[in-house]
Amino acid sequence: MEAESSKSYSIDGSVPTWCSDYLKFNPAASTTLTSSSVLTYVKQAGWENDVYLCPSFDACTNNCRKEYSVEKTTTQVTLTSTFTDTTDCVCDKVVFTISNDDEWVSASTNFGTVADTVLFWQYSAGALDINVWQDNADPKTVDCVWEYSIGTSSSPAATLTGLLGLISASMVAFVLV
Q: Are 54 and 46 in contact (CB under 8 A)?
């Protein structure tokens, strides 16, 4: 049961104690990504380790998916590849929004496959999966999971602010001497 919907069923608006683990099972609400997060590709696997459900991705897709910087708002997560675009390979931004099912879903790309669903689930503070699959087909021909580790990166703005602070402190120290 979702915590928000459980409030409407509660006489006093409280959430029952048996719903206290709600965030653990709610993909969008439990996402701890920030705009300083960096996703690093670990591996791919087909659903239930069926290798035939993960197509062979071209070199461009493989390069683009190696590492993503993250830009996060309350309603959107945008992944930007850290791969430098070339004339032969331009990486799409992958934009996820919160669906009606409270999942992070993307309609911005299908990574060159017949997939009609791309979403991500963060299952721990240090890892998430991007799932690429063909939802409206039986049998499915694409049902692939990309695993990512989650790290952090200092943004150029934070680095510049720190550098300016260091220079200011040095100048004050120099003037005082």
A: yes
Q: Which two tokens stand for residue 163?
A: 């550098």
CA distance 83 to 36: 17
Q: How far apart are CA 128 and CA 83, in angstroms?
A: 20
pLDDT per position as a tens digit, 47-105 = 888 888 888 899 999 999 999 999 999 899 999 999 999 999 999 999 999 988 888 99
Same domain, 157 and 171: yes
Beta-carbon contacts of 163 under 8 Å, excluding residues fewer than 6 positions away, are none
Q: Both 54 and 140 in a single domain?
A: yes
Which of 122, 144, 123, 124 is CA-nearest to residue 133? 144
Over pLDDT 70: what percentage of the chain?
A: 71
Q: Is the pTM of this model over 0.90?
A: no
Look at the chain and report how many structural domains it folds into: 2
161 and 105 in a common domain: yes
The answer to whether residues 96 and 128 belong to one domain is: yes
Q: Is 41 exposed, middle or buried (0-12, 13-18, 19+ CB in 10 A)?
A: middle
Coil vs helix vs strand at 154: coil
β-partners of residue 148 are: 41, 128
Residues 25 and 52 in one domain: no
